[in-house]
From TrEMBL:
The keyword Signal is annotated on this UniProt entry: no
Protein known as: Rhodanese-related sulfurtransferase
Domain Rhodanese intervals: 39-116
Keyword Transferase found: yes
Record GO terms (molecular function): transferase activity
Amino acid sequence: MTLIYILLGLACIWELTQLWPLRSLTYINIEDLDLTHERWGKVKILDVRDASEYWNGHIPGTINISVGRLPVLWSKHIEPHDEVFISSRSWMQRKKAARILARRGFRQLYAVRGCYLSINKGKVASPYPCMQ
């Protein structure tokens, strides 16, 4: 019985660490985001959804590496000194991707507070339901 309590305690601690804020991740309100603004010109946009979701709708010019492949493939597309904007459907995916990149030395990470964005003919649209 004690082993069960220990395992439950470890599971709770792990969950709390996943929710803990990251210093290197800055959230941006969706209303303040304009990807055409010069401020975002040098920022690399990383879409961490699966390839099938990515091809159903994505921001043009984004780099698609799913969260599961991110620990292995990140170095082919982005470097630790790059500013990286993380795009995904859920806040948990964004947070997990940010943790992976922060462990590898990334200090300028950005994410939208809210839903995944897709630019469709110049208009911002959400092709998927929010998973906040």
